[in-house]
Amino acid sequence: MQMTPMIESFVMHFGEMGSRWGFNRTVGQMYALLVVSDEPLSANQIAEALNISRGNVSMGLKELQGWRLVQQQHFPGDRKDYFQALGSIWDMAQRVFEERRKREIDPTLSVLRDLLLDKPANAQEAYAQSRLKEMHDLLESITTWSEELQRLSPEKLNTLMKLGSGVGKVLDMKDKLVNKR
To answer: For the segment 15-42, what is each residue's pLDDT rounded down to a tens digit?
Structure first.
């Protein structure tokens, strides 16, 4: 596959962003290439387009499969494996968020729960536990909220996002009404 300047610009940028989202630059570039490709690509096509080794592509594809972001395909009469991005852009965003939650938030919640079960030995630990409880409660709320969001259809999510700051204004009005009573 020959990348146009526009596609190359996107692929390179997505690689840089991927490193911030939890996978390395090359894996991000591979995924971006599959997202914008209108046909499934073989590992050789990916390696050639990105000018990377076939082994690097193989490892990257395994990682993307672990994130459930790509699927493997076979075509009759062709022994090569082909790969394509799974689902819509909304599906991608949800999978990335879900995987990051599993890898980052869930382990932190587990540690916080364990630490909150311990009886504080002194005032310093009691204070520390109160802060840990705040952190735990915030992460629990975020997790619950995100799970509820993931159950919404893309259309409802899009509507919710368009409401944006309007929701904050409604809440501010509610607070003013409650405080006037």
So the answer is: 998 878 778 999 999 999 999 999 999 9
- The amino acid that residue 155 corresponds to is E
Q: At 177, phi and psi to the nearest 5?
A: -65, -40
> What whole-number distance in Å separates Cα of residue 18 and Cα of residue 24?
6
Burial of 86 (0-12, 13-18, 19+ CB in 10 A): middle
Note the pTM of the prediction, 2 decimals.
0.72
Residue 12 vs residues 1, 32, 75, 93, 142: alpha-carbon distances, Å: 15, 8, 29, 19, 31
Token code pair at residue 150:
């993931």
Give me 168's structure tokens: 């904050």
**Bridge pairing between strands 41-42 and 82-85:** antiparallel
Contact present, 122 and 78 (Cβ < 8 Å): no
Q: Where do the DSSP E strands lie in the chain?
A: 41-42, 70-73, 82-85
pLDDT of the residue at 158: 83
All residues at 6 or more sequence positions from 103 whose CB lies less than 8 Å from its CB, including other chains: 22
